[in-house]
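We treat protein structure as text, and this decision shapes the records that our systems exchange. The tokens are whole numbers drawn from a learned vocabulary of local backbone shapes. Below, we set out a record of this kind in full and without editing:
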Amino acid sequence: MTEPAAAPIGVFDSGVGGLSVLAEIQHLLPNESLLYVADCGHIPYGEKSPAFIRERCRLVAEFFREQGAKAMVLACNTATVAAVADLREQYPHWPLVGMEPAVKPAAAATRSGVVGVLATTGTLQSAKFAALLDRFANDVQVITQPCPGLVECIEAGDLSSPAVRELLQGYVQPLLDGGCDTLILGCTHYPFLKPLLKQMVPANMAIIDTGAAVARQLQRLLGERDLLSAGVARDTQFWTSASPEHFEKILPMLWKKSDTVRSFIK
């Protein structure tokens, strides 16, 4: 029987974006074994109802529990908004970590007093995001920019084509015109566009995402429960609800190594 601390951690996203969070977890907690489920068959979540997303999250949570996972990370802003409260109610003693846009650190970082947010429509329209603004952004102006189409480009492995460059430029320009000097990446997919983004914004612009903060929160929760692994991590395991072959093809681009991907059929 596996010792509790040696059990794996389940990480979940609607697609490949959560790999940016997975990398931060692996960097901070190299002894932890990781499981990753990408619900690519139902992307983008931003277009789905909260009830649908909650049901998908429950299915993945049950799958992770069947795999013996000691914790779950919702590496998806839209899924966190829709489902994290529901999951915490259902599994009150299971460590669960969600995402939230980095409004607080961005408000602290800005010098111009103007912060831009790139995010999905679902995240920007959520009550949780509105509450974050009320709590941390009283003294700054926040300009929000929904980014339809970006997630689909990244899912296709397109990080630098003229088409994705034009799409991203169209979303970034209004924020620059509005005087933003700090940019929040409010979707776990968007860190993969950082190299392209840095070509479009001033060199001194702060670009903030929350992957590292999520990894630190996971470390804290596991430490409180004496669940941090001291052993050797097993190879990361991957599942997708879409084509495993497609996921395997783009994985080396986003994860920097090749791995086998299995079908998640639920």
